[in-house]
Write a structure and sequence with these properties.
This protein is of the alpha/beta class. Helices cover about 40% and strands about 20% of the residues. The longest helix is centred in the last third of the chain and has 17 residues.
Length: about 280
């Protein structure tokens, strides 16, 4: 198996920034999978069905695909089955081609979040706060469903986002209370804060980090550290970053696509850090 040629890739749009090739190739090298390759392809929702059809018609032996925006939901009707985890948030980031030809979808972002937090010593909390709404925030709620025993407060902009987060909470079995973004500094009283906002959006909150804060999970990885993560570390709080999430979800993808476990977490993280610092 180690020398047979197999292919994998990451699809999305835009895709040029993706660190997935760096992480997966590092894993193949460490595992001795000399015949394996991992590429990136610019594919949008419209082009996805045709791309998958071409893979089936081609001579190459495809093991799997990583999917990023905007394909995580668009791929679902094109699959033969999805995991309960993926179904819970209606998002697939991992497609594995089974030996019988079936396309199977999974979501490794959610267990990746849980694993990244566990690595930093965050295993259970009695409450949490989420900054922002959207796809990453729903994954955060799904992760919190596993590790948070109490209420989650979501700080969002506008009633539509508030309603969306409340609906996700109901669906995932999490008690979600919504609050206005203007009050987001209050999030820092929680033992765990998950920031899912775009780059720069939470910078304004850096000055509000209290003495001796709990844990911060900031899902960004470039630029890193964020202003919020820097302030958090300076006050002695535990910080989990976007690269931690990226590596842990990629570890699970490598294991599913190659059938080899455990995937080499340390080598993958070192490769990701080197790529980021090389910017």
């Amino acid at each position: 198996m180690t020398s047979s040629a197999r292919r994998a890739a990451v699809l999305g749009s835009p895709i040029g920034h993706s660190l997935s090739p760096v992480l997966h190739r590092a894993a193949y090298a460490e595992l001795g999978l000399t015949g394996w390759s991992y590429d990136r392809f610019e594919v949008d929702e419209e082009a996805l069905p045709g791309f998958l059809k071409e893979l089936e018609a081609g001579p190459d032996s495809w093991a799997g695909l990583s999917l990023t925006m905007p394909l995580k939901r668009a791929v679902i009707p094109l699959l033969d089955g999805i995991s309960d985890t993926a179904a819970s948030v209606e998002a697939v980031n991992t497609l594995v081609f089974a030996e019988d030809g079936r396309r199977l979808g999974d979501n490794t972002d959610i267990p990746g979040m849980v694993a990244a937090l566990r690595e930093r010593g965050v295993e259970r909390v009695d409450s949490a706060a989420v900054l922002g709404a959207g796809a990453t925030a729903s994954s955060a709620l799904a992760a919190l469903a596993q590790i948070c025993s109490g209420e989650v407060t979501a700080y969002v902009r506008g009633p539509d986002r508030a309603a969306e987060m409340s609906q996700w909470g109901e669906r995932l079995g999490v008690t979600v209370r919504t609050a206005a973004w203007e009050d987001a500094a209050r999030a820092f009283d929680a033992p765990l804060v998950i920031a899912t906002t775009p780059a720069g959006a939470a910078d304004v909150l850096a000055g509000a980090v209290p003495q001796a804060p709990g844990a911060l999970f900031d899902v960004l990885y470039d630029p890193w550290p964020t202003a919020l993560a820097t302030a958090w570390s300076a006050r002695g709080g535990a910080v989990v970053g976007g690269l931690d999430l990226l590596v842990h979800q990629a570890v699970l993808q490598v294991e599913q696509m190659t059938g080899r476990a455990p995937a080499p977490l340390a080598a993958m993280r070192a490769a990701g850090e080197a790529a980021l610092h090389g910017h």
